[in-house]
Amino acid sequence: MPFIGQQPITGAYSKLDAITTSATATYNLLLDGSAYSPASANHLLVSLNGVMQAPQDSFTVSGSTITFASALTSSDSIDFIMVLGDVLNVGTPTDGTVSTNKLINNAVTTAKIANNNVTVAKLPTTMDLSSNTLTINKNASALVHLRRIDATSIGASTYAITDLFDHTGFEHFELHIERILGSSSSGSENLDVKFYIGPVGSATLDNGSSTAYSVDNINLGTGTHRNVNGVDNMELFTTNTPNKGWQGRITCVNFGARQNGGYPNMSTTLSANTVSFVSSNTYYASTNHRVEGIRFAFTNGNVDTFKADLYGVKT
């Protein structure tokens, strides 16, 4: 009877070694002199005295032993025993025979790739990760980029970011200011800064204190120094041209978040002016306090542009 559909082309088709019969029903199956164990009796074609035998009825198989339904004699002849293999299963492909076309798309999952086995050679030269989130081990670099602030057309008297320094895993920060622009009709301006300080997760502006900072030398311009403690508006610089644009860096050392006896300390270098200041005696002793945000304001005009990058410092 012909096959319906694809003719079977796989399977271990073998002719077993010849067997000499005797007065017994049980015989060993050998292939090239070695014991052979078929999957079942149904995988064998057995011809006895020119007659094909029915598996399970005329003979059974256990391991590498075939047992006929009745004992044979020396005059009986086992003409041949053919092994069909497992014609219904593919089995194990020969090495180097599975091509790319044999695998469906998305068939190779992460679980099938051994750990640490995707090398740089397998990655493209250019990778577009703009629509993905890339997580970097915070200990992999001494300075890790955490956030980009690119605010334009602000047009408000103050510009505040209340959660700027609130990043898990970092206590110390560098705020690299690319540009601060303001607008004013006044001939003289001050750029003031305040910080959101307080218990972790609930910091408020100046921590609600009217004398929020202790000042350690504010250099305004080229010759004026301000050594005043107990104030709540810290001047970063004075200028007659707030729309000129100012750049610099603010360092925030948040000792108060985790270390006993420490307190937040902020220092800046903005254009030609240097300032350093710390939280005041009204709350710095609490180890549960830290700086979480920042607010900028020109004394008379508006803040129009604030562009900066925040980095976490490995400690």
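^ that was protein a. below is b, sequence first then the tokens
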Amino acid sequence: MISFELTEDQRALQETARKFAKEEMIPKAEHHDRTGEFPKDVTKKAWELGLMNTHVPQEYGGMGLGVLDGAIITEEIAYGCTGIATAMEANTLAAAPIIVAGNDEQKKKFLGMLTEQPLYAAYGVTEPGAGSDVAGIRTTATKHGDDYVINGSKMWITNAGVASWYFVLAYTDPAAKHKGMSGFIVPHDTPGVVVGKKEDNMGQRCSDTRGLTFENVKIPSKYRLGNEGDGFKIAMSAFDHTRPVVAAGAVGLARRAMDEAIQYSTTRRTFGQPISSYQAISFMIADMAKDIEAARLLVWRAGWEIDQGRRNTKFAAFAKAFAADMAMQVTTNAVQVFGGYGYSKEYPVEKLMRDAKIYQIYEGTSQIQRLIIARETIAPR
């Protein structure tokens, strides 16, 4: 039988995350958006409640939750503030390559760091000239005895300024193209790691986004994940785990925008009646409701597929593309419902619209998701 009923444990996780968003995130979201200050105190409380690093296996100090469980939590957290949620969820992306391909020693050391203390990690793949075109990266890792020397630059790296370690994708054999990439774990205090300035982003402003430069950074071979040449495969496998969770964030953001639009439209009156009574407004809200529901179902399917041990690449792309585009549309319409007030920073939907845009860009643009969907649909593997 097919069931959409959450388990008792999932309902408890959902309620914990919902309560945390309401009490700890929403009251502080405006401050962090205005100042760009990293939400260290908020994320520390989330870590203490077990709302971070949920996918880390139990033997390494985590809860060992599935991707669907993580998506349920993230939807609630994102309802509170997606900037703070992204600061929390960056650990999930950074840890995914180690969970997928790390050996026991690597997992104990680097996953254990995240569960023993409220620390952060970052995923370093994007470069100034290589975003969607991962094969265009120029960072290299050259073997010298038992060490590798890394040189190159990364860009738009979430949590770069606060991370204790980075997952870094680099070429060990540039001539082999994507089959010549390898993945490495680089501690932040390794000599030669240079952290750039914090970017002044349009939305999710408290998320710490920076560039990274590696200048003759020497790391031991034991910090390489898997074999030489496995890096691209590892990096893409990580996305299968994290894209459903990112899409869940878009769902939470859109749900918040819809709730704000409903609250405003049922109290704002024109010509003697609430504006929600007008078809022009009520139909926009109806579209919000149906699209949010559809996006959530895509997220749950993508998470459920990989939790069953099956490849979910197509379903993850479905969820990421649809939820990202949906969140942008819902927040745009929420601003429209508010009219002139929606364009003002005094009201919450202006922030929600700015925060939504990045969902169409990070962790693979909406256009890249369509390329993946087309490839998986036309020539399924």
